[in-house]
Design goal:
By secondary structure, this protein is an alpha/beta fold. 43% of the residues lie in helices and 19% in strands.
Length: 318
């Protein structure tokens, strides 16, 4: 296995087996995660993703599966959603009570690595009071905060994005614990998938403002491809991270990043001990590690088998 590939893929996948399309029960998803954590490919795993409403179901499973976890259970907790800022504030207060109670009883056995909250759909740019509360409550518990945009993927999405990112970047300058962005990159229907230019705008926008970024949904395969289950093109997680790496290291513009995201030829992506490459562009191995740690954090998937099996078929994973 090439060094740059291992650096890229180390701790990259948040396992979200409870979420669609897998939609496993909490018990089954935890069983799967425990099995992966004790397997030879555990080095690629990051957190177990859980909806905050299901936290109370975890303690007996944690006790039973702890011997197979190889350490404390690491969680990414997805908070409740409100369409308006007032609804978000109300949901946040309820969520933090639940989370504090859970950590009080399970803190010795779990580590909550991130709290993932959705921004309201109205207004399209979040207000300062809501952000202050989100940042403050996450910091109180020492949690890394990631925020997801919920406004529709319509023609105005790209125009709204800079204002949202500017607001987050401004809040980050004064925050004890800066927040990152979480981008939804797919779903169960083709309409849920953002266009490559939209993803490129998010990648370069976060780069320019030094905002960490993670992805969720629709990233089951390394390289972009057409899939019959959604009757459309699905983004590749390798495209995402290669596009982000190249954007950071080479200062690419959105249209150049979109070319990487659109590439469906696995042969254009290469790994060596010195670095990872896409066509004529290369990122040194040490820079891959730095960018993963600082900016391009992880992606969530309801499947661990599909990404892993595809990587094996392409010859990148032994």
């Amino acid at each position: 296995m090439m060094d740059s590939f291992r650096r890229l893929m180390s701790g990259i996948l948040d396992y979200a087996g409870m979420f669609p399309p897998a939609s496993l029960t909490v018990s089954r998803a935890m069983e799967q995660y425990a099995g992966y954590r004790s397997g030879q490919d555990a080095w690629m795993l990051n957190s177990f993703v859980v909806d905050i409403a299901r936290l109370e179901e975890l303690p007996p499973l944690i006790a039973r599966l702890k011997p197979r976890m190889n350490g404390r259970l690491e969680l990414s907790v997805v908070g409740s959603f409100g369409h308006t800022e007032d609804q978000c504030l109300e949901a946040l207060e309820h969520d933090m009570v639940m989370l504090e109670r859970f950590l009080h009883s399970q803190g010795a056995h779990v580590r909550v690595k991130s709290l993932e909250l959705k921004l309201p759909s109205e207004p399209s740019v979040p207000g300062g009071r809501l952000l202050e509360e989100m940042y403050s409550r996450a910091a109180e518990l020492g949690l890394n905060l990631f925020l997801e945009i919920t406004s529709p993927l319509d023609d105005g999405w790209t125009e709204r994005l800079p204002d949202i990112l500017d607001k987050i970047a401004g809040q980050n300058t004064a925050a004890r614990m800066p927040a990152g962005m979480k981008m939804r990159t797919g779903g169960t229907v083709s309409e849920a998938f953002p266009g490559s230019r939209q993803v490129a705008e998010m990648l370069t926008g976060c780069r320019d403002r030094r905002i960490p970024l993670k992805f969720t949904a629709g990233l089951h395969h390394p390289v972009r491809m057409f899939r019959t289950e959604v009757q459309g093109m699905m983004h590749g997680f390798l495209n995402m991270f290669a596009g982000g790496m190249m954007a950071h290291h080479h200062g690419l513009q959105p249209e150049e990043v979109a070319d990487i995201l659109e590439d469906s030829d696995p042969g254009h992506f290469r790994f060596s001990d010195q670095g990872m490459s896409w066509r004529h562009l290369t990122v040194p191995a040490e820079e891959v590690t730095r960018l993963r740690g600082c900016f391009l954090r992880s992606f969530g998937s309801c499947s661990f088998d599909e990404p892993r099996d595809d990587l094996r078929q392409l010859g990148w994973l032994p």
